[in-house]
Write a structure and sequence with these properties.
Blueprint lengths: L2 H16 L7 E5 L14 E4 L5 E4 L18 E3 L5 H5 L1 E2 L15 E2 L5 H9 L2 E4 L4 H10 L7 E3 L5 E4 L2 E7 L5 E2 L6 H10 L3 E2 L4 E6 L5 E4 L8 H9 L4 E5 L8 H12 L3 E5 L6 E2 L2 E2 L4 H8 L4 E2 L7 E3 L5 E3 L5
The structure holds zinc ion.
């Protein structure tokens, strides 16, 4: 190699070294009831790690069963608690069935649940806390799946799967199992007596993705000190998914306090509105979603179904968020 060729080669190497690394973002895609809207039953989010691991959080009733074409590969399913609107006691016939206000959720998923049906079809692992793993293990086994795919992450511990560290955190809520999942004489007797099965405490999650982004998924919860002591002080979550629908969980004012004063993330995705949150993709005037957005001091992003948002390690939305 002569001198000029050598210098050219050095130049190529230097240019290569100075090219900035491709941004490593976590992609978040809501799988709601109606494309481009935020609707009453919407809970389901798919998180995609930069390494390709795909995690489905609270499939609920808007994922149209295991054959929903929006699902793609699902490596891990998270279920915050076993109420029907989170685990999925029924679901849409197909994406966009019915209207935002009145979705068609006529497909029953009991006694399995939408989460279990999806896990079996996709060979996903179901990671839950509290005392829920034995329930999922039994359902997987009863339907020809592998009970070892029901994995425990109890409060204070964590599991790392597909490069994502998954921990559960406290949620102040209830977690009764509808006797419809139990069936038989026992289920019938429990139903008549008005009592639910005991599957331990409801949970939230903290996920640490491979790009370093730490995300808090509140699940259904009230205001709890752990949101400051555990989620903020220990895990240092930078992105939060906050349930704010009122009645069953924190309302807009309480949820805003959790975000502004306890968790203090860089940004938040509103969730679990139990209302028509948007019309034509715009936040509805007078909605709880609007009240939450006005009360929160950091950017609030609305989970419009099918619209993928991207977040960097600092919890900042870098693409696809509404409002931007
Ligand atoms: Zn609930």
């Amino acid at each position: 190699m002569n001198r000029s060729n050598w210098l050219a080669a050095v130049g190529v190497v230097c240019a290569t070294l100075t090219v900035p690394a491709v941004a490593q973002t976590v992609k978040v895609t809501p799988l709601g009831g109606i494309d481009g809207e935020f609707c009453p039953q919407d809970r389901a989010l798919v998180f995609e790690d930069p390494n390709g691991t795909r995690i489905l959080y609270d499939p609920g009733r808007t994922v149209a069963g295991a054959n929903d074409p929006r699902l793609g590969k699902i490596d891990i399913i998270l279920v915050s608690h076993l109420h029907g609107d989170h685990v999925g006691n029924a679901h849409n016939k197909a994406p966009n069935s019915g209207t935002c206000a009145q979705p068609d959720m006529s497909v029953s998923a009991v006694p399995n649940s939408n989460a279990v049906n999806i896990a079996i079809a996709k060979k996903s692992k179901i990671v839950t806390g509290s005392e829920m793993p034995p329930f999922f293990a039994a359902k997987l086994k009863a339907n020809g799946g592998d009970p070892a795919n029901a994995i425990l992450a109890r409060f204070g511990g964590s599991v790392t799967l597909g490069g994502v560290r998954i921990a559960t955190v406290a949620a102040l809520h209830s977690n009764g199992l509808d006797p419809d999942y139990i069936g038989g004489d026992l289920g019938k007797a429990m139903k008549e007596a008005g009592i639910a099965g005991d599957v331990g405490l409801a949970t939230g999650y903290v996920l640490r993705f491979s790009n370093g982004l730490v995300t808090y998924l509140s699940g259904d919860t009230g205001i709890i000190a752990d949101q400051e002591v555990v989620v903020r002080n220990h895990y240092q979550a930078k992105l939060a998914v906050m349930n704010m629908g009122d009645g069953f969980t924190t309302g807009p004012v309480e949820a805003a306090f959790v975000i502004n004063d306890l968790v203090k993330p860089a940004s938040v995705i509103a969730s679990h509105a139990n209302e028509v949150g948007t019309v034509d993709g715009k936040v509805r005037t007078g909605s709880k979603t609007e009240a939450f957005m006005k009360a929160v001091k950091v950017p609030v992003h609305v989970p419009l179904s099918g619209k993928t948002m991207e977040f960097d390690a600092a919890g900042k939305c870098t693409a696809g968020c509404a409002p931007a």
